[in-house]
Design goal:
The protein is an alpha/beta fold. It has two domains: 2-149, Response regulator (Rossmann fold, 3-Layer(aba) Sandwich); 154-245, Response regulator (Rossmann fold, 3-Layer(aba) Sandwich), CATH 3.40.50.2300. 42% of the residues lie in helices and 16% in strands. It is built from eight helices and nine strands. It has helices at 2-22, 29-32, 48-64, 85-98, 110-123, 154-168, 182-197, 228-238; strands at residues 35-41, 68-69, 72-80, 103-105, 126-129, 147-149, 173-178, 201-206, 223-224. The strands form two sheets. The protein has a six-stranded mixed sheet with strand order 2-3-1-4-5-6, sandwiched between helices. Strands 8-7-9 form a three-stranded parallel sheet, covered by helices on one side. The longest helix has 21 residues, at 2-22. 37% of the residues are buried. Residues 219-232 and 234-265 have low confidence and may be disordered.
């Protein structure tokens, strides 16, 4: 599953980048200098694996085309958002105003994506959004001809999961939990809509802050958690034999095997 998802992502990112780079003017290419691509990703913080995946996918494609497009060399510049919307906007400005990038690939966090959205739209820099999946980014109100996404939205996966869970499990009254940022809220809103449209009831919503580890009180829930947080949640519930009964938890982004908690809980 991990390899298949990584391969699909690389293909879609490559195709999107190819179309955009191919559209760049080719006349007097040698005089125009390199095509600058900024990778605006959380290389530090709680989502470095996602940053690595996006970077690897982009670099794989650039390597395959010899790091050239339209007769011009492709130059890659990296900036760390630190998963912070304010930092992300500062780094986006640096890439655009100081580094003069032609394209930005990123970010990962929906909160950061929303923070930089209006700025990039006005700057008319082409952005490829590889991971941030809050529905707002490409909604009719925020859609822009220079902003592209190669990932699904919160509604596309969470709403049908809510309907699936009602149809395929015995649970009718559930607790849902997700990280306290835009994608967490939007994902659970969509899941709740699907679940309750089918006849179920969400009796509680919990939004722990990013980085929270003490989640043992939650079970039988659909979670929108990112990176290692989802693994910690699974580890803590594996020993209580809850995981098998929670189809809403997704673990396809990691190949790490589940095991009982180190402390025996």
């Amino acid at each position: 599953m991990v390899g298949a998802k990584a391969k699909c992502f690389s293909v879609f990112l490559g195709l999107a980048t190819c179309m955009l780079l191919a559209a760049a003017p080719s006349a007097t290419a040698a005089d125009k200098g390199p095509i600058k691509v900024g990778l605006l990703l959380p290389y530090t913080g709680t989502m470095p694996l996602q940053a690595k995946g996006v970077t690897d996918g982009a670099m794989l494609y650039f390597d395959q085309i010899g790091k050239k497009a339209g007769g011009r060399t492709i130059e890659v510049l990296k900036e760390d958002t630190e998963l912070n919307p304010t930092v992300g906007l500062t780094k986006a400005r640096r890439l655009v105003e100081q580094q003069k990038v032609d394209f930005i690939i990123g970010p990962v966090s929906s909160a950061v994506a929303l923070a930089i959205h209006d700025y990039l739209r006005k700057a008319n820099v082409i952005q490829i959004n590889p991971t941030a999946f809050t529905r707002e980014l490409t909604s009719p109100q925020k859609a822009s001809p220079n902003i592209f996404r190669v990932c699904d939205t919160t509604d596309q996966n969470a709403y049908p999961m809510g309907k699936w869970m009602y149809k395929n499990t015995p649970y009718r009254n559930i607790v849902i939990a997700g990280s306290d940022f835009a994608a967490g809220h939007h994902s659970l809103e969509a899941f709740k809509a699907g679940f309750e449209a089918s006849g179920g009831k969400v009796i509680r919503e919990v939004y722990p802050k990013m980085g929270t580890i003490g989640l043992r009180s939650l079970s039988h829930d659909h979670r929108c958690q990112g990176g290692g947080r989802r693994l910690r949640f699974l580890c803590r519930h594996r020993c209580r034999q809850v995981c098998a009964a929670v189809p809403g938890i997704r673990v396809e982004e990691t190949a790490a095997p589940l095991r009982p908690c180190d402390d025996g809980r």
